[in-house]
Amino acid sequence: MAAEHNVAGHRVPSSGQWISTTGGRIAPSGEAWLEAVYWFYKYGPYAAARPHGPKKFGDTTLRMAKAIAHLTECRPSIGNLVKWLSISERTAKYHLSMLRESGLLTYRSKGTRVSGVGGRASEFVRTIPQVFDDAAGLRTGPSYRLIRAVHGFSPEKTTLLQELHAAARPPRRKKRTKRSDRRSVKTPSAPSSCTPMVVGTSSSSTAGALHSPSESKLASGHDKSPAPKKPIRRKLNTTGRRYQLAAELIQQVGWLHRAAVPRIAWIVRHVADAGWSTAEVIALIGLEAPARRVHRPSGFLANRIKGAHLLYATAAQRTAMVDHWRDSRHAEHDRHAEWWESDCRRPASRAVAREVDAAFAQLQQQLAPAAEERDLAVGDDGLVDLEQLTRDEIIELRAAALKDPALVRATVRACGENYARRLFTTALVNQAQRLTGLGRTVVHSWRPA
Question: How far is CA 35 from the centre of its chain?
Answer without folding.
Answer: 21
